[in-house]
Design goal:
The protein is of the alpha+beta class and 257 residues long. It has a single domain, classed as Nitrilase/N-carbamoyl-D-aminoacid amidohydrolase, CATH 3.60.110.10. Helices cover 20% and strands 31% of the residues. It is built from five helices and 16 strands. Strands 1, 2, 3, 4, 5, 14, 15 and 16 form an eight-stranded mixed sheet that branches. Strands 6-7-8-9-12-13 form a six-stranded mixed sheet, with helices on one face. Strands 10-11 form a two-stranded antiparallel ribbon. The longest helix is centred in the first third of the chain and has 17 residues. The N and C termini lie far apart (33 Å).
Length: 257
C-alpha cells in the first residue's frame, strides 16, 4: 500500500500567526494536489519558535480552536492525515503545551502529543512538559509522535515501541549549529522502526535553521535528507504494508509565502 507523504519544510515567522497559518494551508492544499495524503508540519509551525517575545501567550487556543476546525473539515473533504504543530492551552488546567495534533482522514482529532523534553528558560519557558507517550492510530498504522528534543535520548522512542508503534514521526525545530549527529539513525536501530523528521528552516534571533535537515531514516541509515532556506514541500512515497521507502529522493517543490 503506497502512501504519498509531504513534509512542510518551512520557515514560520515568529508571532505572525495569520501569515503562518496561511502558509500551512497553502502547503496542505498543494501537497494534496500532488497526491500526498499524509502531511506533516515542523515544531511550532503556527507561531515560530520565539513567538512569545512578539505576541506573548494569551492567544494560545485549546483544541477546540476555530482554525483547527477548518483543517478538520479540509482533512475530511480531501481524505488527508495532518500533523499540525500549534501551542495548546489545556482547557481544564490552563497549562500551555508545545503540541502536535493529529487530524485524520475522517476529519477527527485522532490524538496529540505534548512535548515532554521542553527547553527551560526563555526558549520554551511558557510550555508545561507533557507526560504521556501513546501512539496514535492513523489509517491503520500505529504512529509514535515525538517533538524535537523528545528524541534526543532513546527512552521515549522505546516507550512508543513498547506500546506498539510501527512508525515514528518527529516534528522538529532543530538548528544547524548543534545538529542531531547520528541520534535519529540510532533511534531507528534501538526501536527497530523507521523515523520521519519534519524540520523547519529560516532564522529567528540567534538560531539558524537553514542548514537543519528534514530526514527519512530506517535501520540506522539516513535514506533521504534535505536542507535549504526556501519554504519547500518534500514529497516521498512510502509502502505502509512493508514499512519501506519507495522513493529514491525527495521531490522538492518550492512554496511561495
Amino acid at each position: 500500500m503506497l502512501t504519498r507523504v509531504s513534509l512542510l519544510h518551512i520557515s514560520p515567522k515568529p508571532g505572525e500567526i495569520t501569515h503562518n497559518r496561511k502558509l500551512i494551508e497553502m502547503g496542505i492544499l498543494r501537497s494534496a494536489d500532488l497526491g500526498a495524503t499524509w502531511i506533516i508540519t515542523p515544531e511550532l509551525a503556527v507561531c515560530g519558535y520565539f513567538f512569545s517575545d512578539v505576541v506573548g501567550t494569551d492567544w494560545i487556543p485549546s483544541a477546540s480552536d476555530e482554525w483547527l476546525g477548518r483543517l478538520q473539515t479540509l482533512a475530511s473533504s480531501r481524505k488527508l492525515n495532518l500533523i499540525i504543530c500549534q501551542p495548546e492551552r489545556d482547557a481544564a488546567t490552563g497549562n500551555l503545551h508545545n503540541t502536535a495534533y493529529v487530524i485524520d482522514s475522517m476529519g477527527k482529532i485522532a490524538g496529540k502529543h505534548r512535548k515532554i523534553m521542553v527547553h527551560p528558560g526563555l526558549e520554551e519557558g511558557w510550555s508545561t512538559p507533557g507526560e504521556t507517550i501513546q501512539p496514535v492510530l492513523i489509517d491503520g498504522v500505529n504512529v509514535g509522535i515525538l517533538i524535537c528534543a523528545d528524541i534526543y535520548e532513546g527512552q521515549l522512542a522505546m516507550q512508543h515501541k513498547d506500546k506498539g508503534a510501527q512508525l515514528l514521526i518527529c516534528p522538529a525545530a532543530w538548528g544547524a549549529k548543534y545538529g542531531p549527529g547520528d541520534r535519529w539513525e540510532r533511534r531507528t536501530l534501538e526501536a527497530s522502526i523507521p523515523l520521519w523528521v519534519c524540520n523547519r528552516t529560516g532564522t529567528e534571533k540567534n538560531v539558524d535553521w537553514i542548514g537543519g535537515e528534514s530526514v527519512v531514516s530506517k535501520d540506522g541509515r539516513r535514506l533521504l535528507s534535505h536542507s535549504g532556506m526556501q519554504n519547500s514541500l518534500l514529497i516521498f512515497d512510502w509502502d505502509m504494508s512493508l514499512m519501506e521507502l519507495e522513493s529514491k529522493h525527495f521531490q522538492v517543490y518550492q512554496l511561495i509565502g
